[in-house]
Write a structure and sequence with these properties.
With 269 residues, the protein is of the alpha/beta class. The chain has a single domain (6-261), classed as Collagenase (Catalytic Domain). The chain is 40% helix and 12% strand. The protein has 10 helices and 8 strands. The strands form 2 sheets. It has a 5-stranded mixed β-sheet. A 3-stranded mixed β-sheet has the order 3-5-6. The protein starts with 5 loop residues before the first strand and ends in an 8-residue tail after the last helix. Bound molecules: zinc ion (ZN). The site of zinc ion has 7 residues, from helix 10.
Amino acid sequence: MPQVDSIYIYDAPDVLGLDIGAIGRMLSDLLPETQVETRTDFFTHQLARFKASQVEMLTEQIAARLEEREVHNLIAPQWRDEMAPIAPEERGLETVYLAEALQEVMRPLIPESERGSHHLHIVYIAQCLGQFLPDRHDLALQIVQFGEPAIVSTTGFVEAPALPREYAFRRAQLLAMGLDEALDELDDHFAASTLGYEDQRVTIVAAGHALQVLFDALFGERGCDVAACPLHQADTHEDLATAHLSEDSKLCQRHMQMLTDAGIHPRGA
Ligand SMILES: [Zn+2]
């Protein structure tokens, strides 16, 4: 029987509106037998158990390793001879990390006693995650990096899914004309179907992605064909809104049944 005894949720304190307490309560209602703990951001939490003298050295090492894993050119390495570099800032992105590489920096900091399949670490970060894929010229942004620890990029909610076609087209047009005020109006117009920065709905979307991480950890299950199931992996902002923010959004019958079959009985269900 698959089992997760403990879930640790790490905050991204600089993400406005992200309430990991609410995400913790949702997971704890879903898995009444599992200990759910909320923590400050991953690096601060993990470094807290070291002595002050070690922390300084570790902080320097981590900063150096993170710097090495930051993406400064969004063009894939195999295309860099042929294509001009694109800095993340050119696409309105700040810090971008290679997802797997970031995970490799984080993993060794998890203490031995909290490793393995009975422990689930969910790390929220504000920075972007991405990977280079063989069939793409540029970096593919992603929301989730599954594994130990699982990492969820809240900026990914905004940047990874494709925008509605009309929105993207009109936005590019306005940008080219330098009409910044009109941009705000356009953003408001599309706000219902696209998630933006400092959006109060960020916690709901973050909670849905915690479910994705959970089902991967419990069952190796990723994605869902049901559009309103939070496990559905969204390609566009409309998909994302349907999966997480619509009235119908909830774990589909099949996925609820998987919990029941595993002997998990959510509170209130
Ligand atoms: Zn489902």
